[in-house]
Amino acid sequence: MERERLIRIGALARRGSVPVRTVRFWSDEGLLPIAGRSAKGYRLYGAEAVARLELVRTLRELGIGLDAIAALLAQKTTPAEIAEAHAAAIDERIRVLRAQRAVLRAIARRDPDLSETTIMNAMARMSAAERQKMLDDFVERAFEGVPEDAPGRRIGEAMRALPGELPDDPSAEVLAAWIELGELVSDPSFAARVREMALAGARPAPGARAVEAQRVVELAGDARARGVDPASEEARAIAERIVGEGTSREERIALRTQLETFTDERVERYWQLSGVLHGRPPFPPAVPAYRWLIAALRASE
Q1: What predicted TM-score, i.e. pTM, was given to this entire model?
Q2: Which residues of 12-29 are buried (b: 16+ CB within 10 A; e: fewer)?
Q3: Domain ranges across the chain
Q4: How far is Cα 287 from Cα 217, in angstroms, rounded to an integer?
Q5: CA 295, 192, 280: angle at the middle one, nearest 5?
C-alpha cells in the first residue's frame, strides 16, 4: 500500500487559501486532525485534514460558529440542523439590523438627547417575544386576583394585544410610542392604578348611572373649552343634561365616584399609544371633559 503523503501547515494553508495562523487555530480546536510530526517537530497533515479544511472554511464563511462545526464533525448533529439553526440566527441578526437602522433614522429626524437615544435603541432591539413578555408581565401584575369572568378582566386582554413586531422601517412615531408604552408598563404606580380600575370593574358601584360618552365629550368638552366654571349655575345645568334630569344626590355622588375611578390620563394615553402601534387614526383625549364633569358634579353635591 502506498504511504499517505503528508504536508506541513504552510502547504495546507495554501491549499485552503486561508492564513497559516487560522489553520493553526482550527487545528488547536480539534477541527483539523494532525497526522504526525516531522523530524523537527512540525505538524504534518494528511488527506483528511485537506478535506476538513474545505468544509470548515465553507461553514465559517456562512457564519457558523466553531462549536457547531465541531459538533457536526463529531456527528453530534446534521448539516440540516446546523443550517436551520444558523438561518434562525441570521433572521434575528436581520431583525436587529433593521431595528438599528430605524433608530438611526429616527435619531436623524428627531435629534433626541443622549438618554432618549439609549432608550430608543434598547426598545427597538427588543424582540417581539421580549416586548410581549413586557406586556404580559404588566397585565399579570395589574390583574392578579381579578376574576376571569369579571368585566374588568377584558381590559387586560385588550392591553396585552399589541403588535410585537416592528415594521421593517418603523416611523419615529411608532418607536416613540413603544418607548413611552414601555415606560408606562414599567411604572408600578401605573400597574396599581390599572388594578384599581379592574377591581372596581369587577364590583360595579351600586346606584351609579351610566353616562353617554359622546354627550360628555360634546357638552362637558365644550363647556371646558369655553371656560365655564364647574361650580357655576351654567355648569350645574350642563351636568344635569349629561346625567339626566331628576337624578338624586345619592346617584350623582355614586356617578361622580365611579367616574373618578375610571378617569385617568395615563390609562387613556395607553390606548392612544395602542392606536399608534395598530395604525389606527388618533383620537382626541376625553379625560379633560370627564374631569370637568366630575368637578361640576362635586360642586353640586
Answers
A1: 0.61
A2: bbeebebeeeebeebbee
A3: 7-77, 86-200, 204-299
A4: 9
A5: 75
Cβ–Cβ under 8 Å, residues 52 and 73: yes
Q: Which of 126 and 49 is assigned the larger pLDDT?
A: 49
- pLDDT given for residue 123 in this prediction: 64
Cα 58 to Cα 33, 61, 62: the distances in Å are 17, 5, 6
Q: Which of 165, 164, 166, 170 is nearest to 102 (CA)?
A: 170
For 224-249, write each residue's pLDDT tens digit: 999 999 999 999 999 999 998 778 88
110, 125, 136, 135: which is closest to 166 by C-alpha? 125
49 burial via Cβ count (<10 Å: 0-12, 13-18, 19+): buried
Of 78-82, 131-135, 239-243, 267-271, where does mean pLDDT reach its minimum?
78-82
- H or E element: which one contains 63? none
Cell (9 digits) for 274: 395602542
Closest C-alpha among 206, 205, 223, 235 to residue 298: 235
d(CA 189, CA 109): 32
The 36-37 sheet, strands edge to edge: 7-8, 43-45, 36-37
Which CATH number describes the domain made up of 7-77?
A: 1.10.1660.10
Q: What is d(CA 201, CA 258) in angstroms, rounded to the nearest whole number?
A: 10
The pLDDT of residue 111: 66
d(Cα 123, Cα 179) in Å, to the nearest integer?
6
Evaluate if residue 1 carries a pLDDT over 50.
Answer: no
Give strand pairing partners of 86.
none
